[in-house]
Amino acid sequence: xxxxxxxxxxxxxxxxxxxxxxxxxxxxxxxxxxxxxxxxxxxxxxxxxxxxxxxxxxxxxxxxxxxxxxxxxxxxxxxxxxxxxxxxxxxxxxxxxxxxxxxxxxxxxxxxxxxxxxxxxxxxxxxxxxxxxxxxxxxxxxxxxxxxxxxxxxxxxxxxxxxxxxxxxxxxxxxxxxxxxxxx
Length: 184
Prior knowledge:
Signal peptide: 1-33
Keywords: Signal
Helix content: 40-55%
Organism: Aphanomyces astaci
Radius of gyration: 27 Å
Number of domains: 3
Low-confidence stretches: 1-7, 13-36
Structural class: mainly alpha
Protein name: Helicase-associated domain-containing protein
């Protein structure tokens, strides 16, 4: 039994709780009760998810169907027949779309279709893998990793993978060097 002390005026009294109250209080505080996820309604209806998929597919087509497609956070959907009329002119909610996927609230068919065209779900991971690929290629070509701060991957150079063309590798390396003390 749980006991609690209450002050009433100058007099103290002891309140005793019943065992059923104690059990229900402990159940509320248990890790099982506090860590279980409540199902949150998806931010986008299936119809809206299909429209967002159409936008990504159109961007993918316009970009020449690359292996991967990453949409910038501030991308504004153009006014064009290729894009759903209801979404033209608005900012594409790419961050929200990624969050919905992380939290399991996107339709599985929509996720599969986005995966099939190489939609980037984790931008940080994607950028790091691109940097690793660029550094590997740089070392292969130059024999070292002494990348000058003004070095950009040459555009239209068949020696470099097309997805790396125009990458500001020198800036990336300079940033890594500047933060070397905080790297894991």
